[in-house]
Amino acid sequence: MPPRPIKTPTLDSLLPPILALLPNAYSAHQKCLTTTARLVHSGHHALAVEILFATSKELLKINEGSSGVELGVRMVQVMQEGEIGVDEKSRASITQLLALTPTAGPWRKKLADAAIKWSQQFGTCPTGDPNLHQYIGELYYKDRAFPLAEQHLLASGKRDAALTLAQMMFEWSEKGKLDPGPYAVRGTLPFLAQSPPSIQPALTFLTQFLSLLSATTSPYHQNFISTIPSQTSFSLTEIHLTTSPTLNFLQLALITVQRAPAPGVSGVTARGMDGGVPKEWEGLCRRYSRNSGASGVLAQREVQEVLMQISTEVFHIPPPRGAGGNDLLQNLMGSLFGGGGGGAGAIGAR
Predict the structure, then answer these.
(1) Any idea what DSSP says for residue 241?
(2) What b/e sequence results for 304-324 when a residue is b if at least 16 CB atoms lie within 10 Å of its CB, and e otherwise?
């Protein structure tokens, strides 16, 4: 008697018995885990992902946030185990679940963090998929979870993410009622401190942020003095002179970073006989740090450390002895919003 043929598992045969258990969330959750564990063991990772996605989605629809997110995180883990890469389909599975995840509680962050970790490993960008970062950042922005949104919008680096970041920083500064300097720094310097500097999102953010501040409907409008041509062939065609040394500095810094020595050029060559652009950068930082005042944003230790990092990595200026060794950008963000000293104080806790 010939052996009975082994049936190939299918979505149509395995999913309906799981969903039939709803609205008993616990039973559906457990059966889904058991079924997909067998599939993973037999090498059917893609099918396991489909079942986990479908069950998670249905649980989230009936407000079972904990069970739904647990299955969503398991889905991401199976994608890692099966070495499923980032593409439109896999990304859409995650974004659909994130959209259904409750805003209250830790559930959205738990799924988002797992998804970013997977995209770092199986995407094309070591910091995580830019599209996924943008989507998550925009979700947090809509939730008014500004510190979480900021992390993802900065990590995305996409133009639309930078536009959202500018709008969010404008709202975070209470549309200019608070000093916009710390917000402008946090939306610009992280891009310039990357290696190589990420000019386009920095330009997009700063241009949009200044546009929002200068609008006649903004209370900060009166702090704009005049507009002058930048007199360079670089990105900023004009410079907005304001009463804020920080805003003025960031515009000039963006232009100066674009004039930095090309990659591979030695520090000696970059400085030439007259000090070159590196000397201009040092003078710019020194002058505006002084103008900012001892308690100003640019004079803060954490900001100075990031400027030093740009000096070293972009302009090949040797750092002072004993400098470095810290997570400079994290120190900067912590100081300006809710951490360390000065800046915007407890804004980050809002």
Answers:
(1) E
(2) ebbbbbbbbbbbbbeeeeeee
Residue 301's CB is within 10 A of a number of other CB atoms, namely 12
d(Cα 49, Cα 96) in Å, to the nearest integer? 14
pLDDT in tens, 230-265: 766 667 888 999 999 999 999 999 999 998 876 655
Q: Judge contact between 189 and 205, C-beta under 8 A.
A: no
Element (H, E) at 281: helix 276-292
Give domain 157-345's CATH superfamily: Tetratricopeptide repeat domain (1.25.40.10)
**Hunting for tokens 């090498």 — which residue is that?**
43
C-alpha distances out from residue 318 to 140, 143, 278, Å: 39, 43, 11
Taking the CB of residue 51, how many other CB atoms lie within 10 A of it?
25
Alpha-carbon distances, residue 262 vs 189, 265, 277 (angstroms): 19, 6, 11
Q: Beta 238-242 vs 224-229: how paired, if at all? A: antiparallel
- Burial of 223-234, coded b for 16+ CB within 10 Å and e otherwise, reads bbeeeeebeeee
Concatenated DSSP letters for 23-48? Answer: T-HHHHHHHHHHHHHHHHHTT-HHHH
Enumerate the domain spans of the chain.
Answer: 157-345
> What Rg do the C-alpha atoms of the chain give, in angstroms?
25
Q: What are phi and psi of 63, to 5 degrees?
A: 65, 30
Reduce the DSSP state of residue 187 to 3 states and report it.
helix
DSSP letters, 130-160, are HHHHHHHHHHHHHTT-HHHHHHHHHHH--HH
Who wins on pLDDT, 19 or 333? 19
- Rounded CA-CA distance 255/5 in Å is 70
3-class secondary-structure state, position 312: helix
What is the pTM for the complete model shown? 0.86
The pLDDT value recorded for residue 277 is 87
The span from the CA of 132 to the CA of 92, in Å, is 9
